Amino acid sequence: MLKPKPRHIVLLVAALLLVTGSAFAQPPGHGPERGERQHPREHGMMIPDLTEAQKEQMKELRVEHMKALQPLRNQMGEKKARLRTLSTSDKVNMTEINRVIDDIGKMQTQMMKLRAQHRQDVRKLLTDEQRVIFDAHKPPHQDGPPHAGKHLGRKPH
């Protein structure tokens, strides 16, 4: 019978630790399977007794809503990059920084209004019972992504 060499045992243990460590390093909900299974209510899946017509109308509304938001999201990304550039330059121009911050605020307001309108458009498709359940759930993106910007770069008190 072959006796394993200590070097082989160490390599095997290291490989096992590497594999199991990386498996636990990925938080749930990040990856290709993230979609409807993680957030079924975003697409009306938690609303009971939806008809096929309601599902189709909701899908059309969602596509229109996404098309309306996309240019604003793109502009928002550009403004945030501009703000980062202005904030980190050697000669900081507070007037320009404040202008970009105001622009970002206006875009956020526009996006919130579009989301509110979309939510009301979806509500119009629902029966009274469905509407009660729909209203009981917090709208997606109401408070932004979890932990967005919280304690960024800060030490605990």
TrEMBL record:
Segment forming the signal sequence: 1-25
CDD domains: CpxP_like (cd09916)
Family the entry assigns: Belongs to the CpxP/Spy family.
Lineage start: Bacteria, Bacteria division WOR-3
Location in or out of the cell: Periplasm
Record-given protein name: Periplasmic heavy metal sensor
GO molecular function: unfolded protein binding
InterPro entries associated with the record: Cpx_auxiliary_protein (IPR052211), LTXXQ (IPR012899), Metal_resist (IPR025961)
Main localization (coarse): periplasm
Source organism, top-level taxon: Bacteria
